[in-house]
Amino acid sequence: xxxTIPMGSLPPPITCIGCERQIHQPxxxxxxxxxxRIGESLRRxxxxxxxxxxxxxxxxxxxxxxxxxxxxxxxxxxxxxxxGGAVGEADVLxxxxxxxxxxxxxxxxxxxFDEDGRKRLDALSDLVGAxxxxxxVTQPARxxxxxxx
Length: 149
Fold this sequence. Notes:
The chain has 149 residues and is α+β, with helices and mostly antiparallel strands. The chain has a domain at 49-143: Trna Endonuclease, Chain: A, domain 1 (3-Layer(aba) Sandwich), CATH 3.40.1350. 24% of the residues lie in helices and 25% in strands. α3 (115-128) links the parallel β5 and β6.
């Protein structure tokens, strides 16, 4: 049974769940006006344009849970120990119990994954000895064009 109580009829004092102070007149008789401020963690994710990476990471963890997945990490750059230069980058990297690594490329749209991207992902997969690699596209499937073979 749902019960709706008008804001004006809620009895003061209201206790703040954050600081536990009592608020004796928290709002007017007719409405409660508020604004939303995003948290610092979400602000940083949006600032770095990494929401797609985190969504892909969470989805892949669910898929591979119970299949030997040990961990997953967003934004991994591989460095050549001799030259100190970057030799590849994975948007997400999966680590399995047998020691194998699986690089993941994350794109907003299927059109963003071109032939150069495929070659870079293949080169990184060869470098880490991956049995497979993954391309995750955050665009809805019904709007995606086919990816490169």
